[in-house]
Amino acid sequence: MREDDRQDLEAHRRLSNGDRSAFDELYRRYGGPAYGIALRVTAQELIAQEVVQEAFLALWRAPEAFDPGRGAFRSFFLSLVHHRAVDAVRREERLRHRTERASNLEMSVGEDPAEDVVHDAYLNVRRKEVGEALATLPPEQRRVLDLAYFEGKTQAVIAEELGIPIGTVKTRTLAAMRKLRAALGPEETG
Amino acid sequence: VTQDHERIDELLAGYVLLALSGQDAEEADRLLTEHVPACARCRQTLADLQALSGDLALAAPPIAPPETLLPGLHRSIDEVPLEGRSARRGVLVALAASAVAVVALGGLSLVLGTRLSDAETQTGTALEILSVMRSPGADPVSLDPQGQTPAWSGMVEISAPESRRLYVASDECPEPTSGKAYQLWLGSEGEFVAVGEMFRPRDGVVLLELEVDPSRYDEILITEERVGDAPAEPSTDGPSWWATL
Asked: Which residues, in sequence order, are CB contacts of B189 under 8 Å at separation 6+?
């Protein structure tokens, strides 16, 4: 297990015992990535803030939901944030309150990371690896993955938008995920 | 078998991305309750895909949250006493069997899929659901009391995209007024429809399974209604609890 993952585990253990400094430690480490993905998916600052706030509060209220035997804390928590962000986007869609998504996206996430983000060495390395792995995907695979993951669209919607059979969307999605998994390596568990 | 697993892998990939809908989502739910728990290959595939899904978040540039967020979190944390975390008391839950819950919690779907029909285990299942619903992956949202002060407190609703089942559970549900029972309503753009039969707690325990698609609705409401009536609209003169989905 990587040292960074061990530190996360220890912080999570302390947080489970009610240690607020451990909560702050995890917030310092994952607040930036969490807000980054939440803003990328929702494209609305207030909603993204709610997503991040809810995710950290959920972690505090029920830390036992993370099972170290199932993988790294990083994956668990960022998945949680992503799921909440997708949920928020779809809720917004249902309420038809989404406006100016594209322009917000340009303004909010089109720039380099803010200087005041805590630069975590390992996360930066992993981010680079993820970016490089994504860059190796064929454009058609990258497209379906982007639409699903970063825009929260279902495969049925993606098929309609791209004008391709849903079976093709599924095939491309799986091919992309397999390629990324091969490039990034299997998850180490505790 | 290889061809079957190719199909399963496609569904699992869509599942961890929360990208399934319709029959695909239903098939994934079935797989996650019936096949995956017993298949080491699929369990590993699912774990790998879930880990990958988490790491994909790193592809978005990190952005410092507003400075007000952490102080706000501290204030919220102060409102959650340590002894209150995961306490099994006084909670009403509406739990949609969900991708999010299963992703975060592994074998949850097995619990939901196999035990709810067994009346003898309903109490135990309710407690498991209550435990699950307090987990981050289950996306709890407070149900707010409406109208007069209700007897319940700390009510929570759990929902997630691409769900087609809704569970309602409580381990400390008060008896309704004589001659009345509880009715669950789901709302969309302000229009509510009654869902399922009216219900009463048994020894404080409520456990309902409803075949609905929560994604079609944006509100959940529980009201007290007169037994024998078929109310077209939620009653407004009794205790009720509400949340957005």
From this structure: B218
Which chain A positions have a beta carbon within 8 Å of B136's beta carbon? Answer: 55, 58-59, 61-62, 65-66, 80
Three-state secondary-structure class, residue B79: coil
Please name the residue of chain B whose CA is at the shortest distance from the CA of residue A24: B70
**Which of 116-145 (A) contact B at CB < 8 A?**
116-117, 123, 126-127, 130-131, 134, 145
- Coil, strand or helix: which one is B123? helix
Q: At which residue do the structure tokens 């869509």 appear?
A: B14
Cα–Cα distance, B92 to B170 (Å, whole number):
4
Which residue is it, tokens 């839950």? Answer: B93
Whole-model pTM: value is 0.62
Complex ipTM:
0.85
pLDDT at B33 over 70: yes
Helix axes B2-16, B22-30, angle to 10 degrees: 110
Stated length of chain A: 190
Q: Which has more pLDDT, A154 or A91?
A: A154
In terms of pLDDT, which residue wins out, A100 or B76?
Answer: B76
- What are the φ/ψ torsions at residue A84 (nearest 5 degrees)? -65, -35
- Residues from chain A that touch B52, judged by Cβ atoms under 8 A, are 75, 177, 180-181, 184, 187
Cβ(A46)–Cβ(B26) below 8 Å: no
